[in-house]
Every structure is written in C-alpha cells, then in structure tokens.
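The authors assume throughout that readers already know how a fold can be written as discrete tokens. A single example would do more here than another paragraph of explanation. An entry of this sort, consisting of the sequence and the corresponding backbone structure tokens, reads as follows:
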Amino acid sequence: MMRKVGVIVVCLMLSFCPHLIDGQGKKFACSFSKQGAASIGFLPEYVPMEICTDVIFKWFRFPRFVNRQMLFDDNDKIAFSRLVTGIRQRSRTGRVVASIYGTGADFSSASGTNVRRRAFVQAASTLLLELDADAIELNWERPGNENSGKGIATDRLSMVTLLQDLRQVVNAASSLIKGRPRELWIRGSIHPNLIYSSYNTFDVCELVDQVTLDATSSSGSTSHAPIYGQIITLPNFGSFSGIVIKTGDGLMDATQTWIDNGCPPKKVMLGVGFHGFLTTSSSSGRGFFGNNFCSCGAGDGKRMAYRELCQSFGQRGWSFGWDQQGLTPYATRSLNNGQTERLSYEDVNSLRYKMDLVEQKRLGGVYADYIHSDDIYGTCGQAYPLSGYIASRLQAIPSDIGFAIEWN
C-alpha cells in the first residue's frame, strides 16, 4: 500500500511540473551569425534543429538612443525575423535567443540612468513581443570595476538594477502564452578578477536563466581558453629572468568560481568555438618563448572556421602538437620568409575534455560559435563532426534530478 502511495505522489509531482521534466535535458545552443552564414549561403532553414535546442542570433547591435527612445537596427530585426521563421517552420520546441551586443561603455550608459535604462528595457521588450524571441541575452562580458573592465566602477550595482527591470518584462511576456516561458540570459566573463569584482554573482544568477561563459577565445585571441590556467617561468633575459606568469584563464577555475559565488551549475553554459586561430611569428620569437608563446607580438589571430582549417591540413608542411594545459591541438608550419605559422583549434579530442567538464560540474549545457563554422557539408569526412559529438555527449549525461523514496 505504501509503495502505491509513493508512486502516486511522484506522478502527481511530475504532472504538476511539466517544465521540470523538460528542463532536465542539457541545452545545446547553436549560435548563428547573419554575416558569416550569408557569406557561405547558409540559410536559417539549414540550422540542424535535430541537435540544437536553442539558436542564438548574433548579434543585435546595441540600440541607438533617439529622442529618449532606444531603437534596434532595422536590418538586424529583418535578419532575426527570418531566423525565427526558419526555426519555427521546422521545430515546435526549438528556441531562438536574441543576443544584444554592446561595449562595456554601452551597457554602463544604458544601465546607469533611469531614462536610458527604461528606454533600453522598452527596446528589449520589442524583441520578445514583436519579434517573438524566446530569450534575450546581454553580451556584457567586460563590466567595469576600480581596476579593470571596459565599463565603470558602478556597473556591479547598475547591472543588477537593469536585470531586475528586464526580469519583469520577461515574466510579463511569459504570462501571455501558457506553457511558453521566456528567458533572460547574460554573457559572463571567465576572467577571475572580473567575476569577483564586477559581477554581483548571487543577484545576477538569481535574476537570469542562463550565464553563457565565453570560452571561445583567450587573451589576445590567439587560442581557445584553456581548461587549466598555464604557469610559465620566463627564461633568462635581463630583468625578466625567472619571472613566473600565468597565461590565460582556465575554464575549470572559471566555472567553479561562478558556482562558488552563488550561481547554480544548471544556469552555467560553457562556450566552445568551431574555429581555429592562425597566427604568424618570427623564428626568433618562437625560440625564445616556445610553442606556448610563438604568436607573441603578432596581434590577434586570424579566425578560421573548422570547415576551412580541416581542408588546410590536407596541404603539405603541417606538424601537429598538443597543448597539455589548454588540452587543445595545434599545428605549425614554416614559411619561406623565415616565419612560422601556428594554428590553434578545437577537434573532437579537445571537445571530449570540455564535455567532461560540463558533466563533472553539472553545467546547464553548451553553446557553440558558430554552427555554420562546423564542417557542415562533410568535406573532410562526416558532416557536422563537432556539433554532432557535443549533441551526443549531452544526450548521454544523466538527469540532475533524482527521487529518493524510502519504503517502509
């Protein structure tokens, strides 16, 4: 008798919580760039909704302030509407996220005064109510503080106020259609100093549904963010002799810092990039710094989509290596002018470690930049090798919810 009662109680709990059941699956958010997709003829209808749970539209450029109103670019709105139509026609469950791009100064200005904040919130509401977005994402990775960041010192407070106002708009939009909750996302930094000093993580994570950690590039944009922070002792060179430095912000530490500072793991999503970074350095620089720094002084690396770099590896001259700290592959080749090219990238082997991190930390899922940067046509082998691997790993991760019932 007690066993039957227990089963009935569980069934009743599940029947009253349909979104709890749906919410156990990890999200796989596939980002879509209107410029990048258009350049290769990749239409919104081509997004593989068999594996993408969410599609992030990148980007809405920051709205301009006109006569006490904020207005999004009309071309961005048209492109977003096309994406929404393409997704809705093929998927009943796929969700479209409107991501708003802005500098630290843009968000500081919009959140710091009542007039601009109200105007920004009103503009954001049009993405939900007029353009039918399922979620809004603020790409606010570099809020300011006393020492760093790209905004101002009061961002830590004004960010929370802005999110509170946006939360009300999102909740109101959710109430309009039964069974269709809208969401609020924010793009977060993996820089330890910014996490501690620029985000009120307890309040931020209470207000948002997802924090997307941008791990698609590291400092200087010469490689993907490493799994572990890298410690290097500089060689003997004048006053720099023996100095110990840390390069890059480790994903393991960054995700744990967000969690330790009050963010539930299920609200954290890890970003991965379906691209490589191609950098060039002189042979002398490579000899001094080694492989880890062979791009030092070369500036930002040129991004190459995975579908391009995998074809490039068919050319002669490439030597392949493995970064033990970043847990990512790289390839190098010598040029006739005495310089060396280095290509840091992601493949299935490196993604295996990132998916292990997602599973171990019980994160909410993964987002990828960009879905059309994968080998979409299978030129180098299987079509969608990277995104297909991520989707299969996410599906294999057990549910975070378990019911423990003691029978007497």
